Amino acid sequence: MIGRSERRALLSRMEATQAETQRHLAIIARQIAARAERLTITDRAKCRCHAGSASSWTKADERLFQEHLAELTLARRGEIDALTRKLDQQEDAIAEVRPRQRARGAWRPAAEAAGFSACDRHVQTLVGDEESLPV
């Protein structure tokens, strides 16, 4: 049996590790979105005749961005799924150390509860938040 202070220290380390995994997953999502945006801007700039002027984000740009986003997410699906599984394992381990204090799946948004896979959830997070899309 481990003591109270040891249990707290263990729980603290486990939660820090889980937070680091969540940050890594967020970094991947930001990298995918940034890369999709760069690809979109590059592809659309080739089609436009007016170089050097500030361009506005059109519906065609948005469609192209969504296509790039889906392709890049699919390309990194293995990494995203591995991190999602790791988060599940970490959450199970934390639940064993701290029973009944935190509901399982607290880090998961409603999209996964509705039946979306982890990768779909991240695409939806990136795609669904239209306010964060480039303008």
Notable traits:
mainly alpha; 5 helices
Dominant shape = elongated
Radius of gyration equals 20 Å
Annotation, overall tally of beta strands: 0
What percent of the residues sit in helical stretches (DSSP H or I)? over 70%
Count of domain modules = 1
> Sheet bearing the most strands, described?
none
Spatial separation of the terminal alpha carbons: 57 Å
How big a fraction of the residues is strand?
A: under 5%
The chain-level mean pLDDT equals 78
**What letter string, H or E per element, gives the SSE order?**
HHHHH
The count of helical stretches stands at 5
Question: Quick summary of this structure?
Answer:
The protein is an all-alpha fold and 135 residues long. It is 72% helix and 0% strand.
